Amino acid sequence: MRVALGVEYDGSDFSGWQRQKHDSQTVQQRLEQALSQVADHPVQVICAGRTDTGVHGVGQVVHFDTPARRQPRGWVFGANAHLPDTIAVRWAQPVSDDFHARFSAIARAYRYVIYNHPVRPALGMQHLTWNYRPLDAPLMHRAAQTLVGEHDFSSFQAQGCQAKSPVRTIHHLKLQRRGHLIVMDIQANAFLQHMVRNIAGVLMAIGCGKAPPGWVEEVLHHRNRTLGGVTAPPFGLYFMAVTYPDAFAIPAPEADIPFMPLAMASG
């Protein structure tokens, strides 16, 4: 049978999502080890979207195939018993064989959280990005609207990105200030490697006045990563949700995230 899981994780101490050939600790590695204990056979999972070192997951979705018969709560509580505190399986359910965590997805959503204050915080430095320069959030939001729609995002992808095409469709891109936090929410059909962080880097340069609002369009049209500005740090980036066709009945992530920066950001 095929099983889908919702996975939440703190990426601070992991070398990203994807299993590595060397001994680095990754989220996929630890999750597969835990599920293998529950299934009593080696398990390999496929995720909706790989995340980099230091990036966190709120609504990651994976699937795996297994001959083992377990109730959904058995997968959830069994896996969590073998996982570190920084990874949790939030739900499990059987799915049809035509469900694929990556290829069945029709949209993915990320959130980037910026702490905008002249003094760095002592708490949460692995869970938000600190920017000491005053940022104009409404200006950043207006500039960001140039990126909504279908575009060639070559200027916003990592130079080592292995995607077959740089064309992606951004459904919405919103920035708003909430106290000292500036929250960027972005949804697209799919993302290139470092795409969200590169967009955040460009927008922060505009927000502090280092670049004019029209720079977003210039960068987009260059289609050249070397002209695309600084890649923002990974610490404030969260993989929030994956959208699938209704027929698969995949649960949405819970809105009440028990974590300070995200709870503040959710209003």
Provide a short characterization of the protein structure.
This protein is of the alpha+beta class and 267 residues long. Helices cover 22% and strands 27% of the residues.
Description:
This protein has 267 residues and is of the alpha+beta class. The chain has 2 domains: 2-104, Pseudouridine synthase I, catalytic domain, N-terminal subdomain (Alpha-Beta Plaits), CATH 3.30.70; 108-238, Pseudouridine synthase I, catalytic domain, C-terminal subdomain (Alpha-Beta Plaits, 2-Layer Sandwich). It is 22% helix and 27% strand. Strands 1, 2, 3, 4, 5, 6, 7, 8, 9 and 10 form a 10-stranded mixed sheet that branches. A hairpin with a 2-residue loop joins strand 8 (167-178) and strand 9. Helix 1 (27-39) packs across helix 2 (72-81). The longest helix has 13 residues, at 27-39. The protein contains 6 helices and 10 strands, in the order βαββαβββαβββααβα. It has helices spanning 27-39, 72-81, 137-144, 195-207, 215-222, 260-265, and strands at 2-9, 46-47, 56-65, 87-95, 107-116, 129-131, 149-152, 167-178, 181-188, 237-243.
